Amino acid sequence: MNNSSNSSVLIIDGNSDFHDVVRHAVTDIGLPDCRACISFEEAQRALKSNPAISIIIMEVNQGGSAPLNFMRQIRAGKTSADKFVPIIIMTRALAPETAFSACEIGFEHFIRKPFNKEALQKRVTSVLQKPRRFVVARAYFGPDRRDPNSENTYDGEERRSVKSNAPTQASPPARKAKAPADIASGGKNDGSAVPDVAPKQSASPKKIPLADEAAVAKSAEAKKQLKAAPKSPPVDPLAQSKAAPPQPEKNKIELADEPKKSVAGPDRDRAAEIAAKLEAHAVWLLSQASKGEKANFADEDLSGADLAEANLANANFRNADLQDANLYRANLFDADLRGANLSGANLTEADIQNAKLRHTNLKAAQLSEAELRAADLSGANLTGAQLAGVDFKDAIFLSTNICGADMQGGNLTQKQIDNAKGDQSTLLPAGIMIKAAQ
Q: Among 14, 93, 121, 257, which lies 20 to 30 A Cα-Cα from 421?
């Protein structure tokens, strides 16, 4: 533990039992300076006494609109805290409407309750190690979801929202939160810290075959994508139960260092099952379908699962429940997502080219900077989805619900929008509009 660290944590949760859970997790990665509050009024007073808070971990479903208003005040600079302070939100069941509003305000990570120590440590370490620059735009102020270290520029058809028509102001530089020495060095305090390190990419394999060769021909970019080596599957994907459990008593909250409890058994088994499928799928892709097994998650409950940066090209998710799942930068090229529930999911920068998304529920999903070239979105529900800077070239929008969706900066055509179902709440690039008859 690094006692010289100046990093401090503000915990806000009406259930004080969770204060100990969060405090125990962050202390083990060198953040012993924690202030816990049971209300947002108390949190305001805590910020006045210590405005140099390094990170806020807060319950987003308590006190009605208080949590979102508290976040808005911080981002607007109306509190004693730095308006760039990283915010991690947590709750048991994140409603799509709440997710949509929280995305508009700007937060770094979401974690579903109940969670184990390692899951929270991974998110906290990620925020401190890799702080994002902030975007200041007409409708958004918050963390940039793009890679801050990327030197790529995009021109012509490849341009993204960084060169979009959406009016923006100059973004301030990234706020470098001071991380403890043991986090910054990549070391572990007592063997319990879980750094948020992206899986290494293996050597490029030969072209990976697809089940539908006709779909590949739709896009030259699709063929290039097939040559990309699949990423190693996440070591410990989280597959939380869809049903919200009852409010826990203190002695029922699982701590990572406590003896194993029978209730956690199915969760560990489920996580192992997902990891095994991802590993077999990676082998299947590398061997051109001669070894391993194609990942099949059809009709399965993957709500809240952490599948960030996983290679799921060609995988079957038909009618699967992926509500609130983390699919940040996941490879879903040519995946079958027909009828799947992706409401509130994080698909930021995900590759969803050629994917089958017919009648998929993407309500309030975060898809900023995602690749959706040649994707079939017929009948899909994109109500309230964040779609700024998405590549929509050749995407199909037949009867797609785009009411309330933010599609500014996307490379859309008027013909695509004419086939969709939108209204005046739909935010579109300059020159594109919703027909009055709709």
A: 93
Give the 3-state secondary structure of residue 37: strand
- Indicate the residue among 127, 144, 161 that finishes a domain: 144
Does 390 share its domain with 294?
yes
Written as one string, the DSSP assignment of 208-273 is PP-S-HHHHTT-HHHHHHHTSPPBPPPSS-----SSPPPPPPGGGS--TTSPP-GGGHHHHHHHHH
Per-residue CA distances from 288 to 10, 181, 284, 296 (Å): 49, 44, 6, 17
On the 0-12 / 13-18 / 19+ scale of CB atoms within 10 A, 247 is: exposed
- Contact (Cβ atoms closer than 8 angstroms) between residue 87 and residue 58: yes
Long-range contacts of 285-288 (CB under 8 A, 24+ apart): 285/205, 285/208, 285/230, 285/311, 285/313, 285/314, 286/202, 286/205, 286/208, 286/229, 286/230, 288/205, 288/206, 288/207, 288/208, 288/209
| Cis amide bond preceding 114, omega within 30 | yes
Query: CA torsion 114→117→123→125, rounded to 10°?
Result: 170
Contact (CB, 8 A) for 35 and 47? no
- Work out the widest C-alpha separation in the chain, in whole angstroms: 64
For residue 52, what is the domain's CATH number?
3.40.50.2300
Helix axes 66-75, 40-49, angle to 10 degrees: 30
CA distances from 23 to 67, 349, 421 (A): 20, 32, 47
Whether the CB-CB separation of 410 and 392 falls below 8 Å is answered with: yes
User: What one-letter code names the amino acid at 185?
Assistant: S
| Among 7-16, 40-49, 260-269, 373-382, the least confident range | 260-269
Boundaries of domain holding 99? 9-144
What is the residue-averaged pLDDT of the chain?
Answer: 74
Token pair for 428: 């579109």
Dihedral sign of CA atoms 164, 404, 75, 390 in order: negative
Residue 158, SS3 per DSSP: helix
Distance of CA 328 to the CA centre of its chain: 5
Q: Which two tokens stand for residue 192?
A: 């319990």
pLDDT of 239 > 70? The answer is no
Rounded Cα distance between 211 and 220, Å, is 17
Which segment of 54-63, 191-200, 288-297 scores lowest on mean pLDDT? 191-200
Q: Are residues 216 and 134 in the same domain?
A: no
| Residue 163 DSSP one-character state | G
